[in-house]
């Protein structure tokens, strides 16, 4: 089955679990800002996310300055949010904890 956009209810349920994530104003996307000890830690995190993203063929939009990484997730293919964004957000939360 083709990739589906999350329903409004699925989106609400997903966001209630992804507590650090919020909806982007004026766009069907979610965002989170993460901070690290220094650039090395931030870039190490980005590298791990990049490996996941390439394997999953689902890529973040992100912005990095030194120890800060701002991540935005959306699925261009459905022009909104899909399960792939939820999975990527969960992966990000998981490795950020470690
Ligand atoms: C052709 C390729 O599979 C698509 O362009 C993939 C690549 N990575 C992607 N990443 C994201 N975030 N959304 C997409 O819809 C998407 N589509």
Commentary on this structure:
- The protein has helices at residues 8-17, 39-56, 83-97; strands at residues 22-23, 30-35, 61-65, 68-73.
- The protein is globular.
- The chain is α+β, with helices and mostly antiparallel strands and 98 residues long.
- Helix 2 (39-56) runs antiparallel to helix 3 (83-97).
- The protein starts with 7 loop residues before the first helix and ends with a helix.
- The site of the ligand C[C@H](O)[C@H](O)[C@H]1CNC2=NC(N)=NC(=O)C2=N1 has 7 residues, from loops.
- This is 4a-hydroxytetrahydrobiopterin dehydratase.
- InterPro entries: PCD_sf, Pterin_deHydtase.
Highlighted features:
alpha+beta, 3 helices, four-stranded antiparallel β-sheet, 4 strands, globular, 98 residues, binds ligand H2B, single chain
